[in-house]
Amino acid sequence: QVQLAESGGGSVQAGGSLELSCTASGRTFSDYGMGWFRQAPGREREFVAAISPYGRNTYFADSVKGRFTISRDNAENSVFLQMNSLKPEDTAVYFCYAKMLRTTYWGQGTQVTVSS
Question: According to the model, what pLDDT value does residue 1 have?
Fold first, then answer.
């Protein structure tokens, strides 16, 4: 059974940093693009960042460019999101995903709360 498990969420003051981790199990994900979405209360889920299967390419939402970085460790079946200079508007549940062609797997989400 495929599972993606996020960790690393929590509460932080504005300007602080957090690193989210997502570890996949049930199969190898080295051929999958992986990344992160987030969903704030009352808002739709939105794209945050993505990384290509072997880490050659990364993509970011404009709202997080220059503040967030994404990386992956295929040996550990994991993807990471380093979030710096956090803002209150970054408060959301963060979901990791793994996607290849028409197949997408999602994690359960981890809460990030940024206070001003």
Answer: 86
